[in-house]
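Researcher: Structure prediction, please.
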Amino acid sequence: MTTQNSAHPTPSAIAPVSDKDRVLIFDTTLRDGEQSPGASMTLEEKLEVADLLDSMGVDIIEAGFPIASEGDFEAVSAIARRVKNATVAGLARASFKDIDRCAEAVRHAAKPRIHTFVSTSPLHMKYKLQKEPSEVLEMVSAQVARARNQVPDVEWSAEDGTRTEMDFLCRCVEAAIAAGATTINIPDTVGYTVPEEYEYIFRTVRERVPNADKAIFSVHCHNDLGLAVANTLAGLRGGARQIECTINGIGERAGNAALEEVVMALRTRADVLPYGNRIDSTMLTRASRLVSAVTSFPVQYNKAIVGRNAFAHESGIHQDGMLKNAQTYEIMTPESVGVSKTSLVMGKHSGSHAFKEKLKELGYTLGDNALKDAFKRFKDLADRKKIVYDEDIEALVDDEIGHAGERMKVVALTVIAGTMGPQSATLTLDIDGTHKTHQATGNGPVDAIFNAIHALVPHSAVLELYQVHAVTEGTDAQAEVSIRLSEDGKSVTAKGADPDTMVASARAYIAALNKLMVKRLKTKPEAMLQNPGLRGSVA
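Model: Predicted structure follows.
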């Protein structure tokens, strides 16, 4: 084990790595990340995320799964046209129809890639594919050849690669490279492996496959056992030179290796992990907040690198050490990941310029109209709070971003609560430009609000999660409410923030309902509102 001491080199003191130790960053936030239940994004949100990924230096952006839906195809196609620097990849199963659809989606990219896969483990071949190994081997050659005939850059993945028999894995990899694959991905699809085992898999495959030097090897790790980042770094030691990851580690089940954690591990411990990459780490916090806002997935406070407490010190001993020398308890600077140590106190006397600078410091860039709306909400908040903390502004702006473009909005809410029930709520919604009001009662004020919403916009969605937390300390703290709704197997999550918990609850529920409507019809909410079956409900 390497021991850190006073002579430990800083990242800037490490000599540049050679080209052979350059690591490609493959971000799959828009594909694997969006497969998290409730994390679907609109086309506009996907384009915003893609722009940021491209700007921060991501090498490959996996934009989606084109065959999955018309919406996914349109999103991949739009991102392919828009991205300036990164390779744009689409995912395709071992089907010619999938591969052809994927090729069509990425064809306008400056650097297109088809990422195709097939299961190779005994378990998957028997129960998922119901095919013999010889048939799967033939599929590998056929699918890669089909893809390579359409684009020059083809990635092939052995799904459930870490539970695949080594001899068969080597045969599949050899066949994929022979058919034209330029990148070979051996994913830990179910988060099953451990670092030593994953490193061994890469070393063994690269040693035994005769044409292994003709392809770049890639790692793709899931976090079911909390080992995604550790396994990713082990894969690099085994010879992989592409990392597949997501912002905030979102993804199927327990998620993927977090891009920000991998990048900062490589930067901070370059003495033992001498692998370079092109990521501008000062944009990591901004990327984290954007993805959290558009997916409505909160970042846990103690999340490495980008969590609220990542650079917070409450212990007296830690504070004393930090005041004497920040390196006593911080192994990286806040600035290196886009967090400023300066805390500008904002209040009701702060002007728009100071507000704009504060947003910039927190990693937000808003257009003129969005900035104007956010500033108005900030001033309203400042009139109700003595001090507006950074966390208040983050919650306010995230709420504004998350609700942008919605066609249903909370206009007014009056709640009567207390020991003498039933409690009641009078709610006014703006639905496609028209104000609708309804009064409802319930078993408590929140129940009354949700009953009023249901009366104005009838739906069959089930409330799976209702969660409230205070953004800051104090009785005047903003409440941030998280809502998860599900309907017919579809699940969405949304947030609402306001000093009034009841208002925040209504905003969160309406935001979730807007998302669910968009997801159901793959169109704008007004299409659902104009649906004949619902027309009477909003009249």
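Model: Residues 1-15, 313-323, 522-539 have pLDDT under 50 and may be disordered.
Researcher: Thanks, that helps.
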